[in-house]
Amino acid sequence: MINQQMIIINSFFMKTKPICFFSALSGLLLLCTNARADELQPLKIDHIGVDLAVAFLLFLLLIIAVWLYRLSRRLREEADAIERPDGQVREQLTSLNRVQIDQLINHSDVEKKPIKRNGRDKAIKALTIAITLVLSGHAAKAQDASVAATINSPGIYIMLVLVMLPLIGLVYIACVKLSRIVNSAREFRLKKQAVRLTQQMEDDEEFFAGVLRRKRALDYTLNDSELAGNVPPDDKKGLLTNVAEVNGVRFISPKRRAAKKHNVDPKLVKLILWFLCTGTFWLVAGTSIGEYIGIKFVSPDADHVSWLSFGRLRPTHTNMVFWGWSSLAMIGLGHYVVTTVSNTVLYSTKWGYYTLILINSAVLCGTISLMAGINNGGGEYREYTWPVMGLFALGIVITLINFLKTIARRKTPEIYISNWYIVSSVMFLTVIVIVGYVPWWQNGLGETIVQGFYMHQAVGMWFMLFNLGLVYYFLPQHLNTPIYSYSLGILAFWSQILFYTLIGTHHFLFSSIPWWLQTVAIVGSVGMLIPVFAGTTNFLMTIRGNYHKISRSYTLPFYVTGIIFYFTGSTQGTAEAFRSTNLVWHFTDFTVAHSHITMYGIIAFMLWACIYTLVPRLTGKEAKQSLVGAHFWMALVGILFYSIPLMVGGTLKGMGWVAGKPFIDGVSLMAPYWLWRAIGGSLMWGSHLLFAWNMYAMTVISTEAEVQAAVFEKLDYLPANATI
Questions:
Q1: SS3 content of the chain, % helix, strand, coil (to 5)
Q2: CB neighbours of 135 closer than 8 A, spacing ≥ 6?
Q3: Distance from the CA of 636 to the CA of which of 59, 117, 182, 707 falls in 20 to 30 A?
Q4: What does the angle CA 421 – CA 425 – CA 428 come to, to the nearest 5 degrees?
């Protein structure tokens, strides 16, 4: 019976594989021609919104089609694996751990209960019905060529939407059914492999002896004399695993796997993952808007919808990635660091969820209000209105109290430097929001001074300070190496607090702000070289002796890239602060490149490094190293394609302004550099989609090892002479 089912699966795959792909699109094109041309009345309308809706539905249909193809390919692979000859049973032995081998040995001597069959036949039948419904779209008849002339009419768009919605639903149902069959086939394959192992043990004494040798190898413990004498390479110590993988072609060099799952409070793990997953959502959403903005520099007439105008989308993009992605990810990671270095539990998990809800609500409300044209009237990164920012500030205050109460209950006498940075950044953000939104000192030039303070303190005393605190913990943990110098960390901490709080007005040189205040900002900018050099030296010296590990991991390159951008981007900020360079670079695309080098090259890369370090330790799951590597290289190449052309073009534009050339000449000059901006932004956006998938893989997807472990746990319910 089972063999017949597998024949059905194979034949189903061979018959439907070419059809699953193209039936959706072909059915859609044929159904779109159901009306006669003489029955349609063309009407000139502004159909941009409908175009976007149809484009979105087509994109969704394409994603589901790709999913269907991947599922069908996996089903074929599982079917082929099930039908492999029993000669590969010996290769499977190296993939078993100590517990599974014990279960295998115990099973060979005990009579077990039969395993229950699942509803695979019903799933195949339901999937066949769903595919048949999808293919029913091919019943449409041919129409006159004149229909194309009325393609822009409202009726055609309405019909497209009405046809595509059920079509997408049917293909999605088919994918769900096929996914269940794939999972069932995988479990069936592993069960069959387990039964093959038990039968081999019953029939082959030599194989049984090999199982016992493997058990002794896995039970091996060091006795401090292993290096003495000559040991033959027969793996008596159980060091080799998954020997069958050696025969495969390796396009991607193998990397070292992440550390094993740590014993962390499940409630805290769930809270942290909620922060990281919602932050990832805002990253994808915010940079999707940024991608569209970059395209508008190349095609400024892409749309004429007020909600999608550049003046509304730009602050939506920046605030979404600032307060949505970066802030949520930092706070989520901070919950782990604060509790771990304090060697205690979080004071209140409930308060953590309050912060999560408040910040997400602030970003959602702020996004809707900005796109609707409701804003704070100007200041950069200060576009949210005060009620929206009030929700965010309340969440920050709750986090501050929660962190302070957690540290107060610490079981260590000292407060590790990471907690210095993290708690100080939360305290500074509370001050920043009060200064930026309480309207007691925002009149005349006071408004400009407050804007400079708010904008620069948000970047340096919130994002930068918090991230440095995270790196001071996660980098040594990832390397299993202590931080190079605690004193350098303290020097960087206090010097950043001293100098960074003075530099906000270097954005307003040659303005009506008092000349002495501008000079103070320049001096503070130069003083920032102290914490930057101290921090960079501390991090690089911590990595010293571990640079060979860069080729064995994709997580460490994220740290190294973030540190390099920390040095170059911060030093570049000092260079921009001088009056001579500010005269050329200010108000040009050079500052756009600089802001992306700091907020993306430093903050985003450091956050990704910390996330790839922590999440596998929380969930026990790891993303594919090839996808992590693709994420790294696409993000790195993207930010370089983005920033370097803008710095070159911005310099040329500023020099032209100094020479007295018209403003429009600068616009014409930047056209090719904006094209590179769009290309780099597209690579960055694509890397974020890969990161979102990696987060999904590290939190949701069950691995082959997990399914295999579950199958071996069920061996107690199999009879000793069971056959599949």
A1: 75, 0, 25
A2: 19, 23, 27
A3: 59
A4: 140
Tokens of 624: 């594919």
- Taking CA atoms, 159 is separated from 31, 50, 59, 162, 165, in Å, by 9, 11, 17, 5, 10
134 within 8 A of 167, measured Cβ to Cβ: yes
Find where tokens 């205050």 sit.
397
SS3 222: coil
Distance, CA of 75 to CA of 81 (rounded, Å): 10
CA angle 511, 568, 559 (to 5 degrees): 135
Nearest to 521 by CA among 506, 532, 508: 506
- At 623, the amino acid letter reads A
Position of tokens 């029993």? 86
Successive 10-residue mean pLDDT values, the chain, 724 residues: 46 44 39 39 48 72 80 78 61 72 68 45 50 44 43 57 74 82 81 78 78 80 66 64 56 68 88 97 96 86 88 94 97 97 95 97 96 86 93 97 96 93 96 89 84 90 96 94 93 96 91 93 95 96 90 91 96 93 93 94 96 93 90 96 95 94 93 92 95 94 72 66 59
What's residue 553's pLDDT? 86
Q: Can you tell me the distance from the alpha carbon of 391 to that of 388, in angstroms, rounded to the nearest whole number?
A: 5
Name 225's Cβ contacts closer than 8 Å, sequence gap at least 6. Answer: none
Torsion of CA 566, 568, 573, 574, to 10 degrees: 110
Q: Looking at residue 610, what is its pLDDT?
A: 96
Which residue has 């064995």 as its token pair?
552
Q: Are the CB atoms for 312 and 373 separated by under 8 Å?
A: yes
Do the Cβ atoms of 496 and 456 come closer than 8 Å? no
What are the two backbone dihedrals, phi and then psi, of residue 346, each rounded to the nearest 5 degrees? -65, 140
3-state secondary structure of 111: coil
By the 10 Å C-beta count (0-12 exposed, 13-18 middle, 19+ buried), 107 is classed as buried
Among candidates 680, 588, 573, which has minimal Cα distance to 637? 680
DSSP helix/strand/coil, 605: helix
Query: Nearest 5°: CA angle at 579, between 576 and 585?
Result: 45
pLDDT for position 110: 45
